[in-house]
Design goal:
The complex is a heterodimer of chains A (318) and B (263).
Chain A (H helix, E strand, L loop, with lengths): L3 H5 L9 E12 L2 E12 L3 E5 L6 H8 L7 E6 L2 E2 L4 H5 L2 E4 L11 H11 L4 H14 L15 H12 L6 E5 L7 H16 L3 E6 L2 H7 L2 E6 L2 E6 L1 H8 L3 E6 L3 H10 L3 E3 L3 E6 L4 H9 L5 E5 L2 H9 L6
Parallel strand pairs in A: 3-8, 3-9, 6-7, 7-8
Antiparallel strand pairs in A: 1-2, 1-4, 4-5, 9-10, 11-13, 11-14, 12-13
Helix pairs in contact in A: 4-5, 6-7, 9-12
Chain B lengths: L12 H14 L1 H4 L1 H22 L1 E4 L2 E4 H32 L2 H5 L6 H29 L11 H22 L7 H14 L11 H7 L3 H14 L6 H27 L2
Helix pairs in contact in B: 1-6, 3-4, 3-6, 4-6, 4-7, 4-10, 6-7, 6-11, 7-10, 7-11, 10-11
Classes of the chains: A alpha/beta (318), B mainly alpha (263).
The structure holds adenosine-5'-diphosphate and magnesium ion.
Chain lengths: 318, 263
């Protein structure tokens, strides 16, 4: 395994506090407002998450950041430069994992990296060297001459990650990097990203996996319908919006409902299930299990997912 | 802040061209077969089979064999086919199914460079096909040298013209099946009525006029003139027409692809 230092190099194109500064970022498609004047700042060297259900506007937002989509309004600076004027210079220093697989099926694993390096003006020799390092990094060296069409979903995702690192980017943009992967592949990606973070790369990540966000993000926003619902770090948000613990009760009785209501406990009633948010360390839980339900009642630590569902609702999207 | 129609082209389009060349080289032996066999098939079918019926034909005041009449036209047709089918079906597959352009647009390449790279690649395929066909056809003695060598730059010009209009269609079709329309309404009539298999003078006056609008008519006229070694100042008009056609459809292709892909 190559040390991530070798993969990342040590470049400091930009030494300001925020690598991305978005101010009132707006994107419309005809009359439809996909991103509704949102503002956020990605701190240099940190991982910033954009969370949201399907159709929230995550992809549209990051596409503006990497200069793929023109903005409909607002201001956007990347590396302190203006994306609509200095797009080429900015793109030299960004790595992108797009949501949809865009590996080149006409090429092999190694060629995918080498050809991509050429788009960044890397000399052939350097491209080969860097490609080999990256294949080592993502544990795909043994398949270097395989056509990408023969790779598994997890391998393809790792290759996309490697490809996005080919130019030694200062900012890595990941649009749902682990959606659709099996747990092993997902953890592989997380481990690789963890290593990169350790070396100080800046990441802008979109996801709807809360575990992923909790694990990787230093700071995040939850967006829905193109608007920011909250911003904060994962721990803060959990404490602020749901508290320390969650009690989930299956098939709640009327008595229990009255008990919860009388005590004015923050909760959500899903009909067949009741979710109670509490700071309490077990007293309430004991009371509920003793008096109202012998089984089908569990207490667990609150997670980001509770925050997410509380803020974005539980109805299906799309 | 919406960006208008702004053209951003640098030499970087060669990177896109290089990607296509790399893929082509992986299967060049197979890619070389059609331009090698095609003229042979046509010359045998039309030349040997038909010329028994047709005999010699009159072209620009002199009698020539039917085979030598169609041979340069076959090169013209091949120039048209190679670039047109490259920037329609093949580019569409890369754009729509393989998301190759999306990946490129996350790098320092601009959309204009991607599209230019594709069109120039189409012209390159025309060039390769024309070169191979020239080799085969000159074996039969139907091409005069050195004038015949002018067919090579002609292939690039024709390739750009047909590659541009092909890319224009790629910018506007809803799905890949819709290419049937321009193929049936534009390419096929040209293939038949551009002075390819019979002299235009055989057509009624109005049809002759209409045929001068076809870029293939001019491509075939030029190819024939170069093959016969009949270089004349009036050929500049034909070259001018192909240039004009390219100058119209190249920016139109960029515009339509921009409208299609920049979201
Ligand atoms: N090119 C487009 N034209 C029209 N609407 C679009 C386009 N791209 C995205 N949208 C709409 O914008 C909204 C946000 O999309 P997107 O950013 O892809 O969401 P997410 O990535 O969060 O799932 C969706 O409602 C989507 O349908
Ligand atoms: Mg998305």
């Amino acid at each position: 395994m190559v040390h991530p230092q070798a993969v990342l190099g040590t470049r400091t194109l930009f030494s300001g506090q925020y690598i991305v500064e978005a101010e009132n970022l707006l994107k419309t498609f005809g009359d439809f407002v996909a991103v509704n004047r949102i503002s956020f700042q990605v701190a240099t060297g940190k991982c910033y998450g954009i969370l949201g259900p399907n159709g929230a506007g995550k992809t549209t937002t990051v596409r503006m950041v990497y200069g793929f989509s023109p903005m409909s309004g607002g201001r956007l600076k990347v590396f302190g430069l203006d994306i609509s004027r200095d797009w080429r210079q900015i793109k030299f220093h960004i790595g992108v994992c797009q949501q949809e697989n865009s590996l080149d099926p006409d090429l092999t694993v190694l060629q995918n990296l080498e050809i991509f390096a050429r788009y960044f003006d890397m000399p052939k020799k350097e491209a080969r060297k860097k490609a080999m390092e990256l294949l080592d990094f993502i544990a795909l060296k043994h398949r270097l001459n395989a056509p990408v069409t023969e790779l598994s979903g997890g391998m393809m995702r790792r290759l996309v990650l490697a490809r996005s690192l080919i130019n030694t980017p200062d900012l890595l943009i990941l649009d749902e990097p682990t959606t659709g992967l099996d747990p092993q592949s997902r953890h592989q990606i997380w481990d690789r990203l963890g290593e990169l973070q350790g070396k100080g790369i800046t990441i802008l990540l979109t996801t709807h996996y809360m575990e992923e966000a909790s694990r990787l993000c230093d700071r995040l926003i939850i967006i829905d319908h193109g608007l920011i619902l909250v911003e904060g770090n994962p721990g803060e948000l959990i404490r602020q919006y749901v508290g320390g613990n969650v009690i989930e009760i299956a098939r709640p009785t009327g008595e229990l409902r009255s008990f919860i209501q009388a005590r004015q406990l923050p909760h959500e009633d899903l009909g067949h299930r009741l979710i109670v948010y509490c700071e309490d360390r077990g007293e309430l839980y004991q009371r509920i299990t003793r008096d109202f339900c012998k089984e089908g009642c569990v207490m667990r630590l609150a997670t980001l997912e509770d925050v997410f569902l509380k803020l974005t609702g539980r109805e299906l999207r799309e | 802040m919406t960006q208008g129609f702004r053209i951003k082209i640098s030499r970087r389009f060669l990177r896109v061209w290089g990607r296509n060349l790399k893929v082509y080289r992986k299967s060049w032996k197979i890619s070389f077969i059609p331009p090698f066999l095609e003229p042979l098939f046509y010359l045998i079918a039309f030349g040997v089979g038909l010329s028994a019926l047709v005999g010699n034909i009159r072209y620009q005041g002199s009698d020539i064999s039917y085979m030598s009449f169609i041979a340069p036209a076959l090169i013209g047709v091949s120039i048209m086919y190679n670039s047109f089918f490259e920037t329609t079906y093949a580019s569409f597959v890369r754009m729509y199914y393989q998301k190759t352009f999306d990946a490129m647009l996350a790098t320092p390449l601009s959309l204009e460079e991607v599209i230019t790279g594709e069109i120039v690649w189409g012209a390159t395929k025309s060039f390769i096909a024309a070169a191979i066909m020239m080799g085969v056809i000159s074996f039969f003695g139907f091409i005069r040298f050195p004038e015949g060598l002018l067919i090579l730059p002609l292939a690039v010009l024709g390739g750009i013209a047909f590659g541009s209009i092909g890319m224009f269609f790629t910018g506007i079709v809803a799905n890949i099946e819709m290419f049937n329309l321009p193929v049936f309404l534009f390419i096929t009539p040209m293939f038949l009525f551009s002075g390819t298999f019979f002299p235009l003078e055989n057509l009624p006056q109005w049809a002759q006029k209409a045929a001068t609008l076809f870029p293939l008519t001019h491509l075939v006229n030029l190819s024939r003139a170069f093959s016969f070694g009949q270089i004349h100042i009036s050929l500049l008009w034909e070259i001018g027409y192909l240039l004009l056609f390219s100058l119209i459809f190249f920016p139109l292709a960029l515009l339509k692809m921009q409208q299609r892909l920049i979201k």
